[in-house]
Amino acid sequence: MGLFDFAKNIGTKLFGEKDEPVTQAEKIKAHIETDNPGISDLDVAVNKGVVAMSGEAVSGEALEKAVLLAGNVEGVEKVMAVTVKEADVPKVEYYEIAAGDSLSAIAKKFYGDAQQYPRLFEANREVIKDPDKIYPGQKIRIPLDSAVV
Fold first, then answer.
1. Which residue from 72, 73, 89, 114 lies 20 to 30 Å from 29 (Cα-Cα)?
2. Is 149 within a domain?
3. CATH number (domain holding residue 41)
4. DSSP states of 5-67
5. Tens of pLDDT along 27-54?
6. pLDDT band at residue 85, thresholds of 50, 70 and 90?
């Protein structure tokens, strides 16, 4: 799947100031497994803000969600993940939320219909717990290949 960049100074606060990389890895693994998007045998390592993940994903979507869960953690600036078969990877675009954005505005931009915001919320449910609480710098998935609901 590759290497993804994230904003290091924003996101879910999981780490204490003096957490060692091993502790950070354990916390990220637990964070992903709490909202497990379909990853088994998950292994996580952290080195200077770079997260390396491996495991078996049931789908490309599950892998993408795990990457977003890890990357949207304060202190993480890059995530590396294993690949899955291309046929399993849905067509998506990644979007970095800007100041003033709302899910309905993002839906309008990508789908031409602000009322499609639930589609974005469902595609990012592991990362976004409340559709009214998104923040600048957060990265989300924009599904492009499924039918508009």
1. 89
2. no
3. 3.30.70
4. E--TT-SB----TT--HHHHHHHHHHHHHHT--SEEEEEEEEETTEEEEEEEESSHHHHHHHH
5. 999 999 998 888 888 999 999 999 999 8
6. very low
